[in-house]
Amino acid sequence: MATERVASWAVNLTYSSLPPEVVQAAVQSFYNWVGCAIGGATHPATTTALDALSPFFGKSTSTLLGNKATRQADASHAALLNGIASHVHDYDDTHLATIIHPTGPVASALLAQSEAVGGVKGDEFLTALVAGIEAECKLGLGVWPDHYDVGWHITSTVGSIGAAVAVGKLLRLQTTPMQHAISIAATQVTGLRDMFGSDTKSFHVGRAAQNGLLAAVLASKGYTGSLQAIEAKRGWSNVVSTVNTVDKQLSTLGSVWEIAANAFKPYPCGIVVHPVIDGSIQLHREIAPAGKNVKDIKSVVARVHPLVLELTGKKTPQDGLQAKFSVYHGGAIGLVLGKAGPAQYTDEVVLNSEIISIRDKITAIADEKLGADETEITVVFADGSELKKHIVHAVGSVQVPMTTAQLEEKFLDQASLVLGTEGAQTASKLAWGIQTSRAVETLVKDI
Amino acid sequence: MATERVASWAVNLTYSSLPPEVVQAAVQSFYNWVGCAIGGATHPATTTALDALSPFFGKSTSTLLGNKATRQADASHAALLNGIASHVHDYDDTHLATIIHPTGPVASALLAQSEAVGGVKGDEFLTALVAGIEAECKLGLGVWPDHYDVGWHITSTVGSIGAAVAVGKLLRLQTTPMQHAISIAATQVTGLRDMFGSDTKSFHVGRAAQNGLLAAVLASKGYTGSLQAIEAKRGWSNVVSTVNTVDKQLSTLGSVWEIAANAFKPYPCGIVVHPVIDGSIQLHREIAPAGKNVKDIKSVVARVHPLVLELTGKKTPQDGLQAKFSVYHGGAIGLVLGKAGPAQYTDEVVLNSEIISIRDKITAIADEKLGADETEITVVFADGSELKKHIVHAVGSVQVPMTTAQLEEKFLDQASLVLGTEGAQTASKLAWGIQTSRAVETLVKDI
């Protein structure tokens, strides 16, 4: 009954039933996503995809965020390209319990189709966004961790379904067609982890958005899938995972809100690196006052959760993209530069000899006793003295969330590189206004 | 090295190196596919998808086979819609060792992109078709049978990769970009078997075509995936299957040609039903000469390979689509009507009381000693007398292939329902001419 349960819950969800913290989380998630999509608009993965696919573009209805040259595309291609852009710097949000990046697939599809439909109000948009994100995260929890462990990029595999639910809600599907939409999305299982470190990782997010949009649009015209797509013997949950707690997870739909646990990244790289970056930045600030110099560092040992090495164990990254998967680069920029924004993940910084020198002195040791947002770092200097740092929860965790001011700084930092300072400020103001927007297409047309 | 091996082999394949039987098989596969795509053009699954997706259509470059109203779409949508149409009657070809329907995903992508590119000659087209089909079938063999058993629709999961290889060859990718194309296709694992019996089964074939086309086009502009997408620990073969004989299968690339073992269906339903239909049609012809009448049938027992019941065990199909998954309907139309063409799979025939009456008298018994193309049927009449039939190999098997005349009859039977007799004959003549075509787009524009 899982498919029907998700469909029926989403169909019946109303804006007035959303608790204030859920609405706030939805606004923040949308805002953070817009900033990331603008920030990623000029990345080669986005522009290469745009260049390759523009011959296929249909009627322009939907905004390509951060692209002032090719401003629009058809909804399907806008969903793809905004999805790629929003994930390409690995700077988007994270549902920590599953490491799903929930907003990318859902918002990319939803915004593009909202513009194509026209006249969608902010409350309607946010309700659909919440429906999609809840469906996506509950299903992700239902196959976690086996699904991810075996090699699926969970963000896009469940993202296709979340996008279908959101667009299906926008199109006002009833329960049965919503089940078909979920089904058509579920059968497009997109995203292998082997792609991490290549352009295709962010393609997954864009394709998930397209998959879901396509599924909902097909279902809205009567296209059929399976009514038991999630739970059937050869349906989604059983084919993509040996663990299946979907029913249990769905039992808390509407009572435990996953979007309320959505976290935002202060650093544009895999979230498991963040404790090491936090610790390294804090240590950077203590090195001079302690009368030491970064050049005097002899060795660095970081004890980390085992997942950190599994996901980000690249010892010698060769470019900015690979560096996102290197806990060593993260530690080095923290220690040497005291910052870890997009500007510290350029190819130039990754290949800088001073950074490489410190990077190569860092040893990371997996320690199962540590949490995923925890680290213990010991810096040993040439004279044998040490500095230590214990990060219990990294910034951007549920315990230490980013503040609104930090979110805005992150948005402006990214967006101003693409739109300039003034353009970034305009975009920021518009994106914050989603809740009271009277027509989403007028909100985004000036971004 | 699997990804590189497939890529390098495909890149270096030349028309002059194709054995005559491979060229012949490629021509027949293309011809049969065109007939099926025309035959499926008016099916509701095709027309619903067309209706839903036409708002997204880009510049018209590529033919929608069998559609005289909306003649063209952009290449990506043409790939999708021709792919759906070519599979929707379950009448397309079958690589018997894997039950992959190989031509649908590959030809749908290849034809659409060939028209968009323009000036592609028949020999170039056929070489790319062979490259795609060989890649697809070898990889399918490499994960067979576990991949299918667990619930993947193997036609579309490997079809995405085959389509990428074919379009990549058309776009003259070199080995490294071809590896990326394979990778971007491999990460889009489309097709759950739970969709069988719904519109989404044929969507899988169309989507696989689109996946592959998109992958090759992206790779042609420099978009990157993993260079080890097939063989990596968290790459395609290890994530989608617990069985992995990919290396072994690839060792026979270019020496054992899978396309030469491609089989064509005389009946528009799952191939495992064909022995029962063959036997039932033969029994139909013997009933009257034996002084009996179908109305006097008391019971029918068909001993069949276990896969027959697993795939086509639907006892009481409610429409033409469900009937394709019913060995009981297949037996009933054979016995009552002596035919099993598209006209015997309409909703009307499925719900006909005489058909239902015989259908309900049929028992199918799984027998592991029988081959997948074998059956033993016993018809018992009210007076206790019996007629028996042992089909050792069904028509359309490798042992009893369809003749060229039978292929043409099948093409004309399907196409004339859509294009009329004259239109079907024109289309047939044009499709046979693929080998010597000087530009594929001129060949198909009059189909």
Automatic annotation (TrEMBL), chains A, B:
Pfam family, one: MmgE_PrpD_N
Gene3D superfamilies: 2-methylcitrate dehydratase PrpD
Boundaries of every MmgE/PrpD C-terminal domain copy: 267-429
Domain of life the protein comes from: Eukaryota
Residue stretches making up the MmgE/PrpD N-terminal domain: 4-246
PANTHER family assigned to the protein according to its UniProt record, in alphabetical order: 2-METHYLCITRATE DEHYDRATASE, 2-METHYLCITRATE DEHYDRATASE-RELATED
Similarity comment text for this entry: Belongs to the PrpD family.
Protein name (record): 2-methylcitrate dehydratase
Origin species: Mycena chlorophos
Lineage: Eukaryota, Fungi, Dikarya, Basidiomycota, Agaricomycotina
